[in-house]
Design a protein that fits this description.
Helix 12 packs antiparallel against helix 14 and helix 15 runs antiparallel to helix 16. The strands form six sheets. The protein has a five-stranded mixed beta sheet, with helices on both faces. The protein has a three-stranded antiparallel beta sheet with strand order 9-10-12. Strands 13-16-17 form a three-stranded antiparallel beta sheet. The chain is an alpha+beta fold. The N terminus is likely disordered. The chain is globular and about 75 Å long.
Length: 495
């Protein structure tokens, strides 16, 4: 037993055998009803079939990962590895330490979920294991439950290691390495002892992870439905923040209040936030990854809220709105905001089949460059075409440094193992979901920026689905133009 497991078991271990026997008896019978088939099950089965076809005759191992200690005997809330969630359909906090194995058969693969099933109440685990025992953390599914819910085979996790390494000398065994480092180390030891080269194992495993990552680029019908749900939930959170805008100034530390309000609704509407929320007021909006959220909020501020709800199936929205705390943009704020809004409109218009992913950024950044040039901010002799030159320009990046888009789904930056050719240089296809999120950032101490713009940071971000003939802005229900945002704030606060 590891030290962390010993720590977690302290509460349960300090008991007598007589007391344990007492605790293990006198319980009402468990309900014997099986869970319904998960709506994700047929989609997960189709994803596994696609993966199976890519690796005939090979054993594929996709771990969920394990619990991680947060402090002493408390763990972080568990979130399964993305590859595991994608191929099983399990979300929320299920199932720590589980491993999906695709076992080769004559006509493909059998899907087997190795996991820690519900233990009997007269077992030592029931009360004696404070990390996994039912008495402490609640019941888990039985093997029969998992088979009924997911339409695959279930086995006890204790059988896993021998089952997947029994013939490692003759069969290629691949594992998603980063999902569970301890499990990967065990598999490496067994595979190397059977004559496999460590470098070859790493390459084979990396190829598997890459294949699963890129397979998520085009979303199926279930995934699109989940994304719609995540976006709808995110709108609820944003509108709750808008309701509280008038109170932020007096409360102090208003950024934290915004973070808390959105987080409350994210946890209530779904599994929680899909990533740490950026709740950046005033000049903090010009720090791209501002997640400290420690600042006060003033009546004159804009607050840039970049946040998304992750639903129980683990699909997350990623939306940004820049809101005037007073409910009305100043003339200078509106000028910057409208420039960003025009850039975003150009980027969204470029989202269509046949265009490259990089075309979205190119369209949006051209509008940004045009505004910067019109404001006289580019160096002398540098025009729009010169700054857009990737080899000799890029002066606009002082005020718009980041990319305009990324894939979105189970991960907020989805499909991250794709190569540049598969990502930036690839054609957009129906079913892809990506963000479109240009911005302009004028830091308060930027002496090259017009004084009237200093301290203003604006980003507008929406989640866009590529369709057969163009695109659908899935978050179009959240107003975007400066006039629409002001009307939105007024409407929400007058309800």
């Amino acid at each position: 037993m590891s030290e962390e497991q010993k720590t977690a078991d302290n509460r349960a271990r300090q008991t007598t055998e007589e007391f344990r026997a007492f605790v293990q008896t006198g319980w009402a019978p468990r309900a014997d009803a099986r869970p319904r088939r998960s709506p994700a099950a047929p989609y997960a089965a189709a994803r596994r079939a696609t993966l199976s076809a890519a690796y005939p005759g090979e054993r594929l191992v996709i771990p969920a990962g394990g619990l991680k200690v947060r402090s002493n005997d408390t763990d972080y809330v568990f979130r399964p590895h993305t590859a595991f969630a994608y191929l099983t359909g399990l979300g929320a906090d299920r199932e720590p330490d589980a491993v999906l194995v695709l076992e080769p058969t004559a006509d493909g693969h059998e899907a087997i979920l190795f996991f820690r099933p519900l233990a009997a109440r007269d077992s030592d685990e029931f009360f004696g294991d404070a990390r996994y025992g039912e008495f402490w953390v609640g019941p888990r599914p039985s093997i029969e439950d998992v088979e009924a819910e997911l339409d695959l085979s279930g086995r006890h996790i204790d059988d896993f290691l021998d089952a997947v390494t029994k013939d490692a000398a003759e069969m290629i065994v691949r594992v998603v390495r980063d999902a569970d480092s301890a499990l990967t180390a065990q598999l490496d030891e067994r595979r190397v002892s059977e004559g496999r080269e460590q470098e070859q194992l790493q390459e084979a495993d990396d190829e598997l992870a890459h294949t699963i990552s890129t397979s998520r680029m085009v979303k199926d019908a279930f995934e699109i439905e989940q994304m719609r749900a995540a976006i709808a939930a995110t709108k609820v959170g944003f509108e709750a923040v808008i309701t509280d805008l008038p109170h932020l100034v007096a409360k102090g530390r208003g950024e934290r209040w915004v973070e808390g309000v959105f987080g409350l609704h994210a946890r209530h509407q779904g599994n929680g936030v899909g990533y740490d929320s950026i709740c950046a007021a005033g000049d903090h909006a010009n720090t791209l990854h501002w997640i400290k959220n420690t600042g006060d909020v003033t009546e004159e501020d804009l607050i840039l809220l970049d946040a998304g709800v992750e639903v129980d199936a683990l699909y997350t929205a990623d939306i940004t709105r820049t809101l005037p705390v007073s409910g009305t943009f100043t003339e200078d704020q509106r000028e910057v905001y409208d420039a960003v809004c025009a850039a975003q409109a150009a980027g969204i218009a470029a989202v269509k089949p046949g265009n490259k992913f990089s075309d979205v950024h190119a369209a949006a950044i051209r509008v940004i460059a045009e505004h910067l040039h019109a404001w006289g901010l580019l160096p002398e002799g540098i025009g729009v075409e010169e700054t857009l030159d990737k080899d000799h320009g890029q002066y606009h990046r002082r005020w718009m440094v980041h990319g305009t888009s990324h894939h979105l789904g189970l991960d907020v930056h989805d499909c991250s193992l794709a190569t540049r050719e598969e990502y930036m240089d690839a054609e957009l296809r129906p079913g892809m979901i990506l963000t479109v999120e240009p911005g302009l950032y004028f830091k308060a101490d930027d002496d090259l920026a017009p004084e009237r713009f200093r301290g203003i940071g604006v980003r507008i971000e929406d989640d866009v689905l590529v369709t057969e003939d163009g695109c659908e802005n899935l978050s179009a229900g959240m107003p975007r133009s400066s006039a629409e945002v002001e009307a939105w704030i007024h409407h929400i606060q007058s309800r």
